[in-house]
Design goal:
Layout (H helix, E strand, L loop, with lengths): L4 H13 L9 E5 L3 H13 L4 E5 L2 H8 L6 E4 L8 H10 L10 E5 L4 H10 L3 E4 L4 H13 L4 E3 L4 E3 L26 H7 L5 H6 L13
Parallel strand pairs: 1-2, 1-3, 3-4, 4-5
Antiparallel strand pairs: 6-7
């Protein structure tokens, strides 16, 4: 269960006016099988003013939580036992049993190669951060979700956040709506390029174009 973007924005603004902190009225779920990583995310969120934080060690536990607990934003690892981050995202976006198809999901992972980034994007992840992440990066993605939420699009092969939130022309045709991209050349040179790790600024181009760390990064 979660709130819509407009409600999140109103609650964040109200909390700021009352001196409670920007994130104090937002309900977070942190999902990671690594206990140390959960502690890091917890410490960052608390330092940013969050007060309501729930934890899960894998996607299965996270699904149980979101079905009975009000959650506004999920911070999610990819590689986990039982149900991983991609499987969790696909369930939230596409299952008839999903408690909220529009739940914002910030994936935080060590995976940084182009095929992996595209796979997560096409599963319906809202934002994608490469570990290690900073407090500035986390806050900028949360602010984007709260203050400038994407509309959702549905095609025959995709349901999830519209990649055109920032109205920057990054892709042509159907890909900018969230569909899988056109096939790429598969020669050795092309494969070498695709196997290289991507910097965060290039990853951001696949998630809206202008969603970089200067957004709310102070």
């Amino acid at each position: 269960m979660s709130s819509d973007g407009g409600d999140l924005q109103r609650r964040a603004a109200k909390s700021q006016r009352s001196g409670g902190g920007y994130l104090s009225e937002i309900n977070f779920l942190v999902v990671d099988d690594n206990e140390f990583s959960r502690y890091i995310a917890r410490d960052v969120l608390k330092a940013l003013g969050a007060k309501s934080i729930v934890y899960a060690k894998d996607g299965a536990e996270a699904l149980s939580i979101v079905k009975i607990t009000p959650i506004d934003i999920v911070l999610l690892d990819w590689k986990m036992p039982v149900i991983d981050g991609i499987e969790f995202t696909r369930f939230i976006r596409g299952s008839t049993d999903s408690p909220d198809h529009f739940l914002p999901i910030i994936m935080m992972t060590g995976y940084s190669e182009l095929p992996q980034v595209m796979y997560a994007r096409d599963a319906g992840v809202t934002e994608y951060l490469i570990k290690p992440v900073s407090a500035t990066q986390i806050l900028s993605r949360i602010r984007s979700i709260v203050e400038n939420p994407r509309s959702f699009v549905k095609t025959k092969s995709f349901f999830g956040p519209d990649r055109r939130r920032h109205k920057k022309k990054t892709f042509d045709g159907d890909e900018k709506r969230g569909d899988s991209p056109a096939p790429v050349k598969t020669g050795p040179e092309a494969m070498d390029i695709h196997k290289k790790a991507m910097p965060q600024e290039d990853v951001d181009k696949f998630f809206g174009g202008a969603n970089s760390d200067e957004v709310g990064g102070n």
